Automatic annotation (TrEMBL):
Family affiliation: In the N-terminal section; belongs to the MIP18 family.
Molecular-function GO term, any one: ATP binding
GO BP: iron-sulfur cluster assembly
Protein name (Swiss-Prot/TrEMBL): Iron-sulfur cluster carrier protein
Subunit composition and interactions: Homodimer.
Function: Binds and transfers iron-sulfur (Fe-S) clusters to target apoproteins. Can hydrolyze ATP.
Taxonomic source organism: Echinicola pacifica
Region of the whole protein represented: 80 to 345 of 364
């Protein structure tokens, strides 16, 4: 298709983007998009210029998490070439597969369609200068992962997992994939999400609902950095649903994601 041609003829793509970071998980529902959105906002809060591509075709949740559901990016035509203007919210430039499909519709994306959408997000969107472009990948291993590494120089991948055995088993596969020769993306580290729960009335207690320190063990096993743990917090879930990332409010969640952003920026 013409997209493929554009991508091949214009290499290298995104020369004005300093770091392209893939956010990946083995399993769905472990909080990958939640971490991607909070991390993006936390990085922007440090003064960095940040973009976020939602490439999770199985459930594009970034539009909801940023309260821009149903918005349609503007397209401008310059010298015969169409350029998509990303939607900007909370200091982050956004592009999502969700902007291309009507809300509540069950669009079935074939692998090649999703791959060409991702290519378009990379080659036809006016990202401008960015310090970080985060790519929220679908869970598991897919065509999209391959498309991504074939299209842009990915700086590294962050693996999100819960400490639960089934999540870790899938995260192990995801992590190994980045190390395979045809992908070959450095793993920047593992984030353990939903690490524990602390009730308000028992602030000194930690309950390890999904098991303890599984993310840390995974990081150790693959000899990659452990980037930190994010507890289960009701306001993180609520913030996701209302489209106002938890990191924007004062509190321990803000600290946790800000710390994560600082660790990554190093
Ligand atoms: P994924 O992208 O891995 O499929 P999501 O980011 O959509 O996962 O998260 C799945 C659900 O869990 C969402 O409802 C989200 O609000 C919630 N969630 C994620 N992380 C946390 C957390 N640390 N504390 C509380 N709820 C969370």
């Amino acid at each position: 298709t013409s997209n493929v041609t554009t991508v091949r003829n214009n290499a290298p793509l995104l020369p004005q983007v300093k770091n392209i970071i893939a956010i990946a998980s083995g399993k769905g529902g472990v909080g990958k998009s939640t971490c991607a959105s909070n991390l993006a906002v936390a990085l922007a809060a440090t003064g960095a210029k940040v973009g976020l591509i939602d490439a999770d075709i199985s459930g594009p949740s970034i539009p909801v998490m940023f309260n821009v559901e149903g918005e349609q990016p503007a397209v401008k035509n310059e010298n015969g070439k169409n350029t998509i203007i990303p939607i900007e919210q909370y200091g982050v430039k956004l592009m999502s597969i969700g902007f291309l499909t009507p809300a509540d519709s069950a669009v079935v994306w074939r692998g090649p369609m999703a791959s060409s959408a991702l290519k378009q997000f990379i080659s036809d969107v006016e990202w401008g200068e960015l310090d970080y472009l985060l790519i929220d990948l679908p869970p598991g291993t897919s065509d999209i992962h391959l498309t991504m590494v074939q299209t842009v120089p990915v700086t590294g991948a962050v693996i999100i997992t819960t400490p639960q055995k089934v999540a870790l088993a899938d995260a192990t596969k995801g992590l190994s994939m980045f190390k395979q020769p045809q992908i070959n993306v450095p793993v920047l580290g593992v984030v353990e999400n939903m690490a524990y729960f602390t009730p308000d009335e028992l602030p000194d207690n930690k309950y390890y609902l999904f098991g303890k320190e599984g993310g840390q063990r995974l990081a150790k096993k693959f000899d990659v950095p452990f980037l930190g743990e994010i507890p289960i917090v009701q306001s993180i879930r609520e913030s996701g649903d209302t489209g106002y990332p938890a990191v924007l409010k004062e509190g321990t969640t803000k600290q946790a994601f800000s710390q994560l952003a600082e660790t990554l920026a190093r």
